[in-house]
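Deliverable D4.2, example record:
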Amino acid sequence: MKYEVIEVPVEDIFFDRDFNCRSFTIDSTASLAKSIEKHGLFAPIILQPFGGPYKYRIVAGHRRYAAMRYHLRREKIPAFICEAGEEANLAENLDRRDLTLWEQAEAINKQFPGRSLREIARALNRSPNWVWVRTCLMKMPQEIKQLAASGQLNGRQLDAVYHCKKDRVEFARGLAVNRPRTTRRRPNVLQIREMLRELAGRGEEGKVMQFGLWVLGDISKEEILGKSQE
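Output generated by the structure prediction step:
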């Protein structure tokens, strides 16, 4: 990637919301604008050359752009100009820790329609399983999507939801319950799948809430199996 920092007129920049993984409102950038006005802009935004009526499109820094243009009324903004493909830009955005599972899934779905898991994983430098968890979210019931969008489900939990063949929505609700953290070690994916098979063999697939608490680390394996035997 080649970068060059220049002052770019805001009119030359395409504020493409579909190219930004994180949704926000202009009003929500007011506090950021106050910080920029007081302390200055710590990091330039990142742009790439773009066609049509605009010279550039934002790759990263949508909130900074909105704060400077719509609140501070700046005519120009410091920016890195990079020459990189959209896949590289998406990979960079997906590294941000503030993205929910749903926002990652939406971004991948828009960028790679019809592509195989291996192709997407190679483009993003991720494992096929990492990509699979996010692509399967697009096929989940709406309530599960909403739980993921609100940040109440992570990738490991969604994997467990997918492999719960009965009443996935209720199971997802159980995982999303806001409970105090414990020091008990949480099970890995293989242990979760083994537990599902064991409960299915006992005819206890309805123990959705207890299973969810076990995945969260709130109860032990012995506790959930002991309850199943009562």
